[in-house]
Amino acid sequence: MGISQPYVLIATRRAHLRAQLLDNHPRADVETVVAAVAGIQAQDITAAAMSIRARSPDLKVADLFGAVWAQRGAVLTWSMRGTRHLHPAADVRWLLEVFGPVFGRPGRRAEQLGIAGASGDRAVAALRDALAAEGMLTRPQVKERLAAVGVDVSGQAPVHVLQRAALEGVLCVLPDPHGQERYVLLDDWVPPSDVPSREEALGLLASRYLRAFGPATVADFRAWSGLPAAQAELGWAAVTDGAGRPAVSGDAPEATRRCPVRLTGGFDTLLLGYADRSLHLPPEHARRVNAGGGLVRPAVLDDGVVVATWRYVRGATDTVEVIPFQALSRRALDGIEREVRDIGVFLGREPRHRVCGECK
Fold first, then answer.
1. Is 139 helix (H, G, I), strand (E, B) or coil?
2. What is the rounded CA–CA span in Å between residue 224 and residue 273?
3. pLDDT digits (tens, 9 = 90+) for 324-346
4. What is the CA radius of gyration of the chain?
5. Cross-strand bridge partners of residue 322
6. 11, 113, 119 from 171: Cα distances, Å
7. Are residues 286 and 321 in contact, defined by beta-carbon separation less than 8 angstroms?
8. 340 within 8 A of 351, measured Cβ to Cβ
9. Does residue 184 come out as left (phi exceeding 0), alpha (psi in the -120 to 50 range) or beta?
10. What distances in angstroms separate CA 61 from CA 9, 49, 178, one per listed residue?
11. Which of 11, 17, 169, 314 is deepest in the core (most CB within 10 A)?
């Protein structure tokens, strides 16, 4: 008797959840979580924190910032799709080998901002020199140093210079939950390590991707990484057999036990990992999660299917507001209540929650 299509879909979805640490599993530290999922998107550090929390029960927000500042086991820099991510410190240098030449090269936007060519080179050198002399800079200090070498700091030029400098391995970012983020020299923060060749690094990236997102396709890998097709295919070929089947992800996942309800953060890596999100996000509800402009809202997952969005509202009494797509089951409601309690532990607060029909 053949295996039914619904069984295969459920099994694949649950395999994704296991790989993404969104099933039932013991508590893991921040570095373990970030490594397991091949990086956490973090242009919004609050959203990144919530994505990490969803993957490890009983973590606290202090654990995240301790992993970056005290243990230095997690590093914030630009990588996949030219966007900021948290990565294990041990991976940063070879990841920059992959993504630096793709996303760090000045393009049309740099020309529009006046930071292409020699102007951009001077700007990056100015940051390197300032960090070497001062150790750490805030964003206002970055603007001062760039203005001194002729950069127009009234618009987006400073962040583009920071991005380029990070992708060239000059600096990394230190997020701060209570104030302004800081920038430091990467060499002062992350110990040196051997870096594989670019071809080897592409294969290593594909391997990490498949462990974190498999079963998956080369189209998924390309969408997740943002790499040009030829480079994505080169990395993919290094970890697939002669028939194009992934060598590390498995082709016949088992439909294991139902996975728990999870409240994931905005821009969650599960939803950014596939060219086609329909296995986890029903197409009829896709616009309620991703309305355009790159925004991916925080989501409520029930056995890996998005059934609602949610938001955290601070006030006299903090509230987690859940906006469902349709009536939620008792199981989903109980799971949401458990997740809200864990969010409270994570933040050191005691939020209430409500399920909204007409939350504005």
1. helix
2. 5
3. 999 999 999 999 999 999 999 99
4. 21
5. 310, 355
6. 42, 21, 18
7. no
8. yes
9. beta
10. 34, 7, 12
11. 17
